[in-house]
Structure formats: C-alpha cells, structure tokens
Amino acid sequence: MTRPERETRRAGTLIVDPSGGGLSGDMFIACLFALGVDPRAVEREVARLPRLEPFRIVAGRVKRRGISVWRVRVKCHGATRSRDLGTILGMIKRSPLDGRVKELASRIFTVLGEAEGKIHGVPLEKVHFHEVGAVDSIVDIVGAVVALSMLGYPKLYHRPFRLGCGTVSTAHGTMPVPAPATIELLKGRTVRLGTEEGEVVTPTGAVLMKVLAGELSSTVSFAPKRIVYAAGTREPEQGPGILRVIEAELCTPGRDVTVLRTTIDDMNPEHYQHVQDLLFEAGALDVFLMQLIMKKGRPGILMTVLCEPELRDRIIGLIFRETTTLGVRFSIEGRDELERWNGEVETPLGTVAVKKTRLGDGSIRTAPEYESCRALARSKGVPIADVYREACSASGAPGSAETRGTAGNVTGKGTAGRRSRPKRDVRRKPARSKRTARSRKE
User: Fold this and answer.
1) pLDDT per residue over 51-81, tens digit each?
2) In this structure, what are the phi and psi dihedrals at residue 307, rounded to the nearest 5 degrees?
3) CA-based, 20 to 30 A from 79: which of 50, 176, 320, 365?
C-alpha cells in the first residue's frame, strides 16, 4: 500500500455515487482520505474518545477491476466489545473533540439507534449496537465526520442507491438483504433492488448519507473537478465493490419536487382555506388554486400542491380525505433554487423577521416576512406598509418599490404612524403675454 497524501485542502461539493458497487463506512472514509485527508490526523482525533480500545487505521491503494482505488482497514489491538447507544453518546460527549464534530457524530448514532429501536421494538435508550458498537464502526462514523471537518464541511449529495439481495449474517441471526436497518434508514431516498448477492449498502453507509447528505436531483448539472474511488471488504471475485466520490461544481442548484394536481367543481369554497392549512402542516412546499371552467360549463378549481417526493403518499391521502376529488395527478419536476435563509432586523417599531436570498452574482436580496410585519403592525397600531418600509430600510433592501403607491403618504424614518399630505404638482404653467390674452378676449 502506498502512503496517503499529507496535505489537506478544502473540498467543494462532493457527490457520493454508490451505484457502481455499494457503500459502507470504511469505503466512504477511504474516499475522504483519497481527497487528501491525513489518516494519521483522523486516527489521533478519534483516539481522543474516552475508553475506546486501541486501534490503527491502515489506508492505501489497491487495484479493483483495473482501477486504482483506496481501501481502509481498522485494526484493533486486543478484544473489542459491543456498546449501547447511551455509552457511545457518553463517550462522544466527554471527548475533547470539536463541538460540531461531536454534534454530527451524536446525531448519526441517534438516527441509527432510532432505526434499530423501531425494528426491534425497544425504546431508544435501550438500543444496543452489536456490529456498529464495535471499534471499527465507531472509527468509521466519528472518523468520517472528523475527515469532513478537515475538508471544511463540503456540501454532500448522493446518487440513488443500488441494493443487493440474498441474506447476511448478523448478531441477531440471518437477515434478508438489504438488512432491516439499512432499508429503514433509506426511507424517503431513491433505491433500486439489484441482483448482486450480499450486503451492498451497509447500515453505517446508509446512516452517514441519511444525516450528512441530501439526494442529488436528476435535473442538476455539474462540472466534475476530481474523482476518487474506494473499495470495501469484498474480495475482487465477489463483485466490483467500488464507491466513487466526485468533487464537483454544481451548475444548477436544483432538486426534484413532486407536483400534485386535481380539479374540483363540487366542493364548498369555504373549505379551501382549511385544506390549504392542513396541506402546509403536512409538509407541502406550496399550495395554490386557480379558477377554471370545467365540463358542462361548471366553474371549478385547479388545486396544485408542491411537496418533497417522499411526502407524496401522505399529501395525496390528505387531499382525498379533505376534498371531494376522485383523482389526483402527480409528476416529478425539476426545480432550481437560490440559496436562502432567515434572519431578523431591528427597526424603530421593533424586531422584524426577514428572508435573505443569495443571487447568482453573490449579492443578497432581503424581503420582510409578511406574518412578522402583520403581527408588529397590529401590536403597534400602525399601517403594515410602515413596518415594511422600516424593515427594508434597516436591512438595506430597496423597499420603496414594494411600498410605493400603498405607502406613498408615509413620512420619514422614526415618524411611523404620522401621515402627510400627498405632494401636489407645483410645476408652473408657461406665462402668457398680455397681448395674447387681449387678442383672445377680443
């Protein structure tokens, strides 16, 4: 095995592609080493976990199907033992690791514990890990988070998973493939059932993607910058067993959304607001209504709902239950999105919530939140346009465009609530000479 690279550089967006041979914890961390993370540095950090048995990370290159790939082995010195969730979380909490590393590692083990608890019917605090509680799995999970921190926490996406078939031996006996924990963790993600015998995606690999990565939209275009490969524990004759990770620059930050449409012509129109509220509470991204003329000249409504693909069945069930429709059409569409986040600004009237958006040129656009402005306007007894204008002024946003025409009679800063007379056109008409006036009179 060759010695790994020593210099670590910040990585851009990483796309995990498990479709060619699966995904496991050791394969994922091997790809991070291939991107430049020093295994010895990760080893030193993970070894700071209290009461963790001595171990050593062995990383280097091997050949798989003619491709030079990285492979990682965690070698333990002496006997190892399984642990319950509380013990592992306690080890992470008491360690001197970085705060964000501890937070993400704890979250990964907790999500894995929730899946195991659901499968075995035990409370979260009583979940006991067998394979995942061993040293190598702890090193894979905590080490992966440490390695990502050394790369600057790049944005992480994954492509759809291809799962194996057959059976796998576990501490609970022989289990079908994919293992119960694996398929539970991948709920809401796109998977394909393959014909390859054995465990292609492990619970450790599944939970790392569940917590750390989002699914890459099929509509996203990207420019590859660097490609690395890693091999798992499978021997070459057992299958490809190769994971690919692509460092890329996204060209269109889009994703897939499910679009649901239904037409209704026999429902009490007073009920639509109630249905909209329920849809938003169920996780809908947007709900809008359009008036149309249906067959036999009946006025009707086209209801359109946008939601995440994994919420489709829940949203459709709600529509059938709460409306009079007999059918719902659905489709998957791409959606490009700008980076957005929430914030607050301080104004003379009080605190106002705002939405911030980063445009393609790097500039930031700010818009006041309607509900926040509405609540502040009611509490202060001032027009909502005053609140909008003050919020735009405080955030540096060009708010006059939004409020001009509805708030054109609002006075300057600090005078919210006072009204002034609208300005009159004071331009003078051109003077007429006395001779011209006299001739017209005559």
Assistant:
1) 998 999 999 998 887 789 999 999 887 666 7
2) -155, 165
3) 176
